[in-house]
Predict the 3D structure of the following.
Amino acid sequence: MKNVLVLSMGGERSAVELRWVREIFSLAALTPVPTAPPAIAGVVNFKGAIVPVLHARAIRPLRPGDTLVLLDVEGVRAALAVDRIDAVTTLDEVDGALATREGDAVPLLDPTGLLAAAQKLIALAS
Amino acid sequence: MTFDASEMEVLHDFFRAEAHEHLEAMTAALIRLEKGGAPEAVDELLRQTHTLKGAAAMVAVRAVAEAAHRLEEVFEELRERTPSPAAFDALMASVDVVKDMVDGGEAAPLAARLAEKLAEARSAPSSAAAPERRPGDRRLDPYVLRVDVARLDELMDGTGELVFDRTRIERRVAELRNAARELGRARAGLRALLPAAGEELAARLRAVEDEFATLVVRMTRVAASLLDDTEALRRTTTTLQAGLARVRMAPVHWLFQRLARPLRDIERREGKRVEVVTSGEEVELDKAVVERITDALLHMLRNAIAHGIESPEARAARGKPPVGRIALSARQQGESVFLDVADDGAGIDVARVRARLAAAGRADAASLDDAEVMAAIFDPGVSAREEADELAGRGVGLDVARDAIVRLGGEISVSSAAGEGTRFTIRIPFTTAITPAFLFKVSGHVYAVSSVHVVEQAAAPPPDLPLVSLHRVLGLGDDAPARPAVLVVDFGGRRFAVTCDKPIGVREIVVKSLGPLLAPLGLYAGATISGAGKVQLVLDPAVLARIAYPAAEAPAPPSERAAPPAAERPRRVLVCDDSRTVREAIARMLANEGYVVDQAADGEEAWRMLDEVHYDLVVSDVEMPRLSGAELMTRVRERHPGLPVVAISARAGRERARGADAFLAKPVARQELVARVADLLGVSDSSKGR
């Protein structure tokens, strides 16, 4: 049993455990970071702090109003750009994926791995 | 005494500033008087009106001089009787009318309004008893000028221009030297002609040649002394800039005084009596910071009065004195200024906030613990903004107040005990909060670079300097404009030109960290948030300098200063010691070797900086307040394995420095320090810049 946020990115559904989710907010003004890897869409101002925006499965450029999920892994923060939020719910874990009531399997997103991957990409870019 | 028009204008500016100072002091004195501060407050009122009258007469602002005289007459009567609250209202309104006059309002209707308000103050019932002196009133030095921050900014901009001016003069000097050199060549040409000339002609030519020689010497000498003059100009500019930065600091007293009037309005509106106790008035804050937190502080006060302080009856029932108490205090601690707003009211009702959170759609409202609920009062939609609109007329909610403080690089927290009161604590960085930066546009986005490194704005790239195209550096391809704007940047003696689309100019910005994820990117020193809330990237001039002077070509830097020790890039060292002298000394030793050196005053600060910037090595004291060097080392080992640490301490501290890669006993010897650091960084002598 896991408390999760079910979301869609690039047309695919996945789930993030709620414990990593700090806030859901909508994109106001995105500032591109020219030398960052493409997976970093840019940075935004979140309550006075500078937060990078991850655009993991980019199929179109971000627009104001797009939904961002602020992830916080032990103080390292990043906003994940998503197509939409589908549900906040409790799901059972079956073989590393989560099963919805309808029986669909939703892959579980690992924010720690995601941020580590972003970190690696940035290290390569710099 | 007569002045010409421009002198008069300047004098009027001075007068307006001074008059506001007097009128604000009058308001403050009236408030003290209302709370029983006589006769000191009456003395103060009379002194202020008298000075205002004199100043107004001096610059021939007759309406204000007359108004001050009227005020003086009425204030004189306050020695004999204590006015009623209604009379106080009328007196304060009178002072406001004079303010309008000073600001250039039409004199006749304002004078009529003043007469009306003063009559009101006189006719309102008052008690005949002469007011009593209250002990312990203290005042601050009245000889303080009130200066508009915008005017200071103009001065700051002016000194910035001086830097450009100096650079221009240096160019002219170079031209002058070239001309002298060419004259020297012409003289040589002349001399070559001598043998071919007849005897008489040769004698005359020799006289001309002599004159040439004298001219060359004189021109060279003038060029040299001009260069000395520019050096003097540089020193003066630096002094001016430092002085202006100090002028921008204002004692918090000023901020507290500014709050007095709106505070009183809130009191009257809420029908509650409050005694405000202030302390730490002498603590200084940057005026620009004061401008930006006044509304936030006002909101805390309004909150305290409206929601914190109970009605006199409720207070009596709880055994509290009927008059509520708000303590406003300021203190400086290290690099931060702390402002406290503490009331002795009912405290925050956690259950009510929880209910409000739930009403605002927070699904987790029930599961939050009390501290989390308390922290959530700063979230948008939780504090009641509509009440703020109505009361303070400024529409600041706690979320907006918090944002204003965060934008300055500070933070706000709240603590509360049921029945005992609430305390808001605001922390603001003391000086580093605001720095000047040069802003410019590239491909539609605004970027900034610390303005101390920008020496000149040029129409075309100077041919003798390396050129850095920001379009290329930022990977923005070929949409560079045909005639880009050019900035000349000087970083540690390495001078280069940078092209951008459009320069914007120098602005005061607050530099923030890009966060742990993006910090390794280089190129950026951080980011700032524009007035509109958009993020603007701040470029790191060190990286631009590396692009301008790549290691492969390694041209000699134009100045005599040291080049970076490593060929590829300058190594960055963090020096951490609680003694300013020690860290300054060590920083200089290392900077002399060409390292980029940052300083931290204690372990806590060092730890924060390590998170924000990539360092190649840390030099740290072992004994420090807050976070000791030993503990810092343990943490560094965990989060930044492989980052070399040099521990410094008194000999006895060696034991505690066991985790370090090297240990140096205090006082640190230059040679030993330099050798150890070079060792640990794998920098050989031959790869150093010199």
